[in-house]
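The following block was generated as part of the benchmark described in Methods. Ligand: flavin-adenine dinucleotide.
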Amino acid sequence: MKAPAFDYLRPSSLDDAIKLLGAHPDAKLIAGGQSLLASLNLRLSQPSHLIDIGRLAELRGISVNGGVLRIGALTRHAETMASPEIAAHAPLLTQAIHHVAHAAIRSRGTFGGSLANADPAAELPACVLALNATLVARGPSGERRITADDFFTGLFETALAPDEILIAIDIPVATPDGVHGFQELARRSGDYAIVGLAAAGKRSGTHLSELRLGWFSVGTKATLAPKAAAALIGPAASLARASEMLAEDLEPHDDLQASGATRMSLARVLLKRVITAMEVAA
Ligand SMILES: Cc1cc2nc3c(=O)[nH]c(=O)nc-3n(C[C@H](O)[C@H](O)[C@H](O)COP(=O)(O)OP(=O)(O)OC[C@H]3O[C@@H](n4cnc5c(N)ncnc54)[C@H](O)[C@@H]3O)c2cc1C
């Protein structure tokens, strides 16, 4: 199918983009276009206007300041993959980004686009949950900071207001006691995962002192598993107990790829792999 007719607008500043978004309530932002164009071609979305934010310098750049790694919303997946700052300060992302689609898509798709799209099977939403990130949005009344925990509200739904643009992602930099892990099961390399886990935490001696488990492709949105994570903290950590607790944390869905029961079983396999690779007592 072909995309429906739309008008194309290319603002030259972030302020102009926000004004255009306010003036055209049926408009859609386009960043890398790697999810949006497919949804237009399938007529899942019929916006009156496309507002192309792809050239806005204010949404670009990767920097480190005061213990925070800032990733501009327009950072392409290929740039995330190649960034020495991200490798040093958020190595979980460097590991995870290899699993996002294929090289051609990674050369156009953006960090902010992936988060704003909120696909429950996407890797980056689960990563920003695990990394306890804060998402920075700008709208007509200024900037708003939204924790990753509050950002993903449902299937392809976020806490962004219709007239807000995601401008950057702030991530606390990894510390020397930091640990991370990433695992996904997909039919083929580059496919969306059947189940996936992004984890980040801190180690104290032989055990974990902090842990956040961000799951994807298990339910309608990227989801934390706080009860399973709590069972893995401290000297009394137990992988068996954490595995049980996943049943309380997750609501895996059925689809053509796998039943909810299969997903739960696979989630337990991934949890074991990630924790084992961290080489902590559990
Ligand atoms: C064949 C194929 C395979 C793929 N496989 C994977 C995969 O395995 N894992 C994965 O995670 N993704 C996958 N993707 C999706 C890809 O990673 C997209 O790049 C990403 O999801 C969206 O980024 P984008 O910049 O292209 O966003 P766009 O397509 O431009 O936009 C997506 C949505 O986000 C909104 N948006 C974009 N930027 C902003 C912003 N700054 N503020 C507010 N709203 C914004 C748009 O309005 C739109 O609704 C795949 C895509 C394709 C075509």
